[in-house]
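Anyone able to model this chain together with heme C?
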Amino acid sequence: MSDFTSNFWSVYVAGITLAGILGCLALLWFSGKTKAMTHTDNTTGHVWDGDLREMNNPLPRWWVGLFIITCVFSLIYLYLYPGLGSYQGSLKWTQTGQFEREVERGNEQVAPIYAGFAGKSIEALSKDPQAMAIGDRLFMNNCAQCHGSDARGSKGFPNLTDDNWTWGGTPEQIHETITKGRMAIMTPMGAAVGSSDDIRNLANYVMSLSNGPHDSVRANLGKSKFTVCAACHGADGKGNQALGAPNLTRGIFIYGPAVESHVADMIANGRTGVMPAWESKFTPEQLNVLTAYVWGRGGGVAPAPAAAAPAAPAAAASADRASVAVEGGVVSFFFATGKSDVAADADKALAEVVAGVKAGKKVQVSGFVDSTGDAAQNAELAKQRAFAVRDQLKALGIAEDKIDLKEPKNIDAGAGAQARRVEVSLV
Ligand code: HEC
Ligand code: HEC
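re: yes, here you go
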């Protein structure tokens, strides 16, 4: 138990402690021998102001009694508990032992709560207020220092509330990320790309993928170099979740501003981002609650089989996240509260619209908002959402002059997720 290699210090410390206590007792015994006497024959000889004499009386009995009790108490204490050098005390009490007993007791108390979560899907858990309250606490204590208390991340740490997932946003993928941890390795690619001019050109090409600020002449020159990046980021730059290579077409960069110099720096120096593994720290139930908490923060992607079936508008709009639905030739884009991110599967839903434009029709795009919040802000949001959808259409090859942005007469379409939409129709 002792931190020292020899016993000497333990004996030394114990000796001083015991000698101190015994010394106190001896002093008490010694000073108790003098008897209280009358005030004349027991003065020290010190006199002040002609009348004030200093007496040499013994300590009061009650005070001595208390003092002896403290000494006896400390001897008993030192026999029962650790305190004398490396002697562990007859009760073998330790701080870690007490801590572990308290943790065990705490776990026993929450066990019934977690038992109620057993067998629930991640989606069901994400709608359970009790599970989400626990998830919030777990997140604040373990994840917020990196991902931020609002889970929106910061430089070097991804935002967990958007639908831009490096490692995938289905419940299974998020669970895997949290449980096993992730390591994203981008090796320095400078040598493979060429001169610093080549790197700049390529960086401009990468910026052009998300339509960020770039020099289009350089971007064209750099395009052919992207083949060395395609192995990980994909030929279209949309990333590879199995490798943790991020999507470069969305203008979301966790390591720096969306500018050419940041991309050039990434190409030259690479990076290794590490998300720690949490398997050993949490119980399986806690890992499920954390997964549900992250998944339910707005960016979660539906589990694979459910995504294949075209969702009905009401169902698609029920969760607070971006989604798309097609009904009667009108494509409705739903949005998460306060956001203008277009759902990931938008392209599929727009296939009919694209075909219609090819056949000579025009597209009309109108944005609606729900009635909560500031009206001016809502109007701006409706516009941003309409723009986001327009960009999506342009990305699918529809010319801008075929897209008609039309402000609806009444952009406030009532309450709820159904109202937060952009409608796309052929005219
Ligand atoms: C020490 C800092 C740190 C802590 C603590 C941390 N993370 Fe992370 N996390 C990261 C980093 C860095 C990444 C990005 C890894 C990469 O480069 O792809 C990440 C990625 C993730 C991702 C994947 C995001 C995506 O786009 O696919 C999820 C989900 C996640 N973290 C959840 C959590 C949860 C839940 C906790 C708490 C249990 C947590 N993290 C705690 C640093 C941290
Ligand atoms: C070996 C696979 C691999 C190759 C090849 C690769 N990357 Fe990456 N790249 C990654 C990974 C993994 C990350 C994420 C690193 C992290 O999170 O720490 C990344 C991150 C990036 C980022 C940063 C994104 C951000 O959020 O800030 C940029 C930009 C980038 N890569 C561009 C490129 C370009 C351009 C090339 C071609 C020269 C390239 N990458 C080649 C795997 C690769």
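The beta strands are 43-48, 52-55, 182-186, 271-275, 323-327, 330-334, 363-367, 403-405, 421-426.
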